[in-house]
Design brief:
By secondary structure, the protein is an alpha/beta fold. The chain is built from four helices and eight strands; from the N terminus they run αβββαβαβββαβ. Strands 4-2-3-5-8 form a five-stranded mixed beta sheet. The protein has a three-stranded antiparallel beta sheet with strand order 1-7-6.
C-alpha cells in the first residue's frame, strides 16, 4: 500500500493510527459498506467541504450517518450563510477525491470543524486520504494537529 499524504503527515508528526481497508463502492462513497464492522458506525466520520460567504472554504467532519445542519454550520464558522461546494471542485481544493477526502493533508489548510459528538470517543475512524482506506486516530490528537474545533453542526433526529 502506498502512503497517502494524510498518513505521511501523521507519521512526521508522530501521531499513531491504525489502518483498515474496505471495498470501495461508488454507490456508497463514505465507507459504510465493505468489511467495516457495523458496530463501529458511530465512530466513523466523513469529511465534507463547504463554502461560507465570509470565511471561504470550511471542512466539516461529522458522523457518517449524520447530515449537516447548514444553520448550525454557519453559526459555528461565523458565517451568515454556508453551502456545500460542487463535487467538481473537491479535488482542486483539497487534493482528494469523493470517498477519499481526509481532513489531514489537504492542499491548503482550511478551518476544520468536528461535530461535537467526536468528543464522545477517544478515537475516531476517518478517511486516510484514499478511497477504501480508513484510519483510526486519537480524536484530540487529530483535532489538535489540524487546528480543528468542535461544535454541534449536525441535524438532530426529527429536525
Amino acid at each position: 500500500m502506498t502512503k497517502t499524504n494524510a498518513l505521511r503527515q501523521l507519521d512526521a508528526a508522530g501521531i499513531k493510527y491504525e489502518l483498515r481497508q474496505y471495498d470501495f463502492d461508488e454507490d456508497h462513497p463514505c465507507g459504510v459498506q465493505g468489511n467495516l464492522d457495523p458496530t463501529l458506525l458511530e465512530h466513523i466520520f466523513k469529511t465534507l467541504v463547504a463554502r461560507g460567504e465570509r470565511s471561504g472554504i470550511i471542512v466539516f467532519c461529522v458522523p457518517i450517518q449524520a447530515e449537516l445542519d447548514m444553520k448550525k454550520c454557519a453559526a459555528a464558522s461565523g458565517d451568515k450563510r454556508i453551502e456545500m461546494i460542487h463535487l467538481k471542485e473537491l479535488t482542486g481544493l483539497t487534493g482528494y477525491v469523493r470517498g477519499g477526502c481526509s481532513p489531514v493533508g489537504m492542499k491548503k489548510r482550511y478551518p476544520i470543524i468536528f461535530d461535537e459528538t467526536a468528543l464522545l470517543y477517544d478515537e475516531i475512524w476517518i478517511s486516510a486520504g484514499q478511497r477504501g482506506l480508513q484510519m483510526l486516530v486519537n480524536t484530540e490528537a487529530l483535532a489538535a494537529f489540524v487546528d480543528g474545533k468542535f461544535a454541534d453542526v449536525t441535524r438532530s433526529n426529527g429536525e
